[in-house]
TrEMBL record:
It comes from Vicugna pacos. Keywords: Disulfide bond, Glycoprotein, Signal. Residues 30-517 form the Sema domain. The gene is SEMA3G. This is Semaphorin-3G isoform X4. It holds the Pfam family Sema. Residues 1-22 form the signal peptide. It comes from the Eukaryota. PROSITE patterns: SEMA (PS51004).
Amino acid sequence: MAPSAWAICCLVGGLLLRGGCPSPGPSVPRLRLSYRDLLSANRSAIFLGPRGSLDLQALYLDEYRDRLFLGGRDAIYSLRLDQAWMDPREVLWPPQPGQREACVRKGRDPLVDCANFVRVLQPHNRTHLLACGTGAFQPTCALIAVGHRGEHVLHLEPRSVESGRGRCPHEPSSPFASTFVGGELYTGLNADFLGREAMVFRSGGPRPALRSDSDQNLLHEPQFVMAARIPDNLDQDDDKVYFFFSETVPSPDGGLGRVIVSRVGRVCVNDAGGQRVLVNKWSTFLKARLLCSVPGPGGTETHFDQLEDVFLLWPNAGKNPEVYALFSTVSAVFQGYAVCVYHMADIWEVFKGPFAHQDGPQHQWGPYGGKVPFPRPGVCPSKMTAQPGRPFGSTKDYPDEVLQFARAHPLMFRPVRPRRGRPVLVKTHLAQQLRQIVVDRVEAEDGTYDVIFLGTDSGSVLKVIALQVGGSAEPEEVVLEELQVFKVPTPITEMEISVKRQTLYVGSRLGVAQLQLHQCQTYGSACAECCLARDPYCAWDGASCTRYRPGTSKRRIRRQDIRHGNPALQCLGQSQEEEAAGLVATTAVYGTEHNSTFLECLPKSPQATVRWFLQRPGDDGPDQARGAPRTKCPCSCHLRTPRPHVVEVIQRRKPTNS
Ligand SMILES: *[C@@H]1O[C@H](CO)[C@@H](O)[C@H](O)[C@H]1NC(C)=O
Ligand SMILES: *[C@@H]1O[C@H](CO)[C@@H](O)[C@H](O)[C@H]1NC(C)=O
Ligand SMILES: *[C@@H]1O[C@H](CO)[C@@H](O)[C@H](O)[C@H]1NC(C)=O
């Protein structure tokens, strides 16, 4: 830099921001990237299929085969993960002859319902997937040959096509959850033709199909969100399939109103139904309420009762997952969203606790106080239930008394409370609605962070962290990025994460996008910008903002401060040359005297404030420039460049008095 140069410095965030500048609200993202930004930076790639829209209903991420399978309208797709959407394969699977016409005759909308919307894609065995579709209002299943690992084939086995009743809903829009365990498909759905008969169903294996007991009103207009096998312990006999859903139930205060509540329900994998009672019906089904509420003044609580989505965060192989649940509230006064986290241990505790009991329809619910029969209803037959002379090897051996009790008491009395008793994240007054949640546990320099990705109804993804600061009960929320994944506003309906590939797969009705979890250089080319971003994936490596990898920090000192985002501490001495200029956490752009170049300072973060300083050669320190530097700069330095120049970060040292 020539000694006669004028330095015009643009301050991005940093100490001055902390020293009294108004801080923007927590919901303002640090970085907002448009659809174009994401594509041009190769951060995302979009697949919309050959017809410009997939009508996507199902997405299965197969990391063993390195492929992504998509279920759409009358078609299934296979994409290779190791190539940027190269080489898509398509299998057309329209309704069977006559089904479309029959659907129209039933009075269904030919465009909305009378196609085969593929809603189930589950791994069947090493070479085949099980696929089920709505089949123009006649659910249908088939096996899809996908080849061994390394092959890229996709074709439908015509001889495998069979009825999908109970395994797939009739409609593309009806809430539904499924999981494939031990060769059998578990579904939570409205199986009835008119969408009225809600049930949990198991089918597909050599055992007879098992379903919910429809006489007992076990489920009240359930909206299924997720189903998964979660082992309770190392004893496989104890394995259960958990269902997450919400229900509409009569108001607990005995009035005429109805309220929405969220549930976790479960069944034993080795449930075989009863021998005389509950024949081919679940004998181990239990459910409990999932609570997610914010304590208010005077003991009031704001409840978030409508379950939107659930993500299981498996920390390590063999450990129990943490249950991340996204809720909304449907109150007349405001719309809000909350994320609550549940430990499996707390869920198990509730299922071990008292059963809910009601003496009659008009009575209050209370804990069941009588004697509970043995084996305890809801317990899977295993070594634990075995007694001398009475092995209880199967639920068919359970005494009638046990099955009668299970039938009459499917609900637990206590609700499941979230970790720390409150949400980790609450969002109100949002412009968008939140639909999907995915979480990644990230190691950073100063600790471990759960990065939460939220899919909105406007085709964007929010990347958020919730910090537990000091002893405060209320977490601090930092919105790191807002990423407009789809060009047009469209609700995000599917989200899957590949930690191995550091990629998020984001689905909407239109199609699917692969989105990198991070792109650190986007935060800027300055240490201060990198530090202010507070992104656990990113750190300043001395030269640029790059991916932070724990354990590799020996070579270089990595600068990162997720907890406080304080560049003054982190970026001290990061640029010796600029220290002489004595500026504070600053990105500087330079212009020379009599040069009418336009200087621009566009901070990457919408949270940063910009101030301009002017440094004349020979001055002790910079003066803050008045006026708008982009149009007019004082002191005859009218500067203009065709492109914004962001050159260097400079960091002020406290003046030493000697
Ligand atoms: C994006 O990827 C394409 C193809 O691989 C490449 O040509 C282009 O330079 C990349 N752009 C950026 C900004 O990395
Ligand atoms: C998978 O199942 C299909 C259909 O039952 C069968 O044809 C195929 O051989 C099976 N593949 C393997 C590897 O067992
Ligand atoms: C004016 O300043 C710009 C930016 O520093 C520089 O690229 C350009 O060469 C300068 N022009 C003259 C005439 O010095």
